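Onboarding guide, step 5: your first structure request.
Type a short instruction followed by the sequence, for example:

Predict the 3D structure of this protein.
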Amino acid sequence: MKQEVYRFAYDEANAELTQILGEFEQLRLRKDRIEKVVEALKPLAGTDAAPAPVAEPKSADSPTYSY
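The system replies with structure tokens like these:
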């Protein structure tokens, strides 16, 4: 009885992991295509330099100082 329950849970988890892996692969391919488009459009935009780093947003918990 317990083996059937464990087997069912295993099969469900395995199916979910397979689905996640497929979605991950699709996202990776999409990311690669977008990166290629960005590289191709750089000459048109006139930006050959590296993009500016993105600043991390401050959390409400971080103190602010004024002098």
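Each response can be followed by summary notes, for example: Residues 2-45 form the longest helix (44 residues).
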